[in-house]
Specification:
Length: 86
């Protein structure tokens, strides 16, 4: 038996399974999910995901809906632009 290396990072629990492209995509999504995002109300970088699609600003307490992995999705931004132009 060879020496096992310790896997670290978001994809550490996946080990050598699923292929490198899937693991890279998973890492990109999870790191973007866990970082702090800008609050649409107060502008501070304190927005964290509370549950799937629900985001909460830890500074002002503003709770809003967004994407599952990002508070603002491309489709949502397009919808906002369309609603503003009418």
């Amino acid at each position: 038996m060879g020496k096992k290396t310790k896997k670290i990072g978001p994809a550490g629990g996946l080990g050598a399974r699923y292929g490198v492209n899937v693991r890279r995509r998973y890492i990109e999504i999870v790191t973007n999910l866990r970082k702090k995002h800008r609050c649409p109300q107060c502008g501070s970088n304190a927005v964290r995901r509370e549950s799937v699609g629900i985001w909460l600003c830890r500074k002002c307490g503003f709770k809003f809906t967004g994407g599952a992995y990002q508070p603002r999705t491309k489709l949502g931004m397009t919808a906002e632009r369309t609603a503003r132009s009418r």
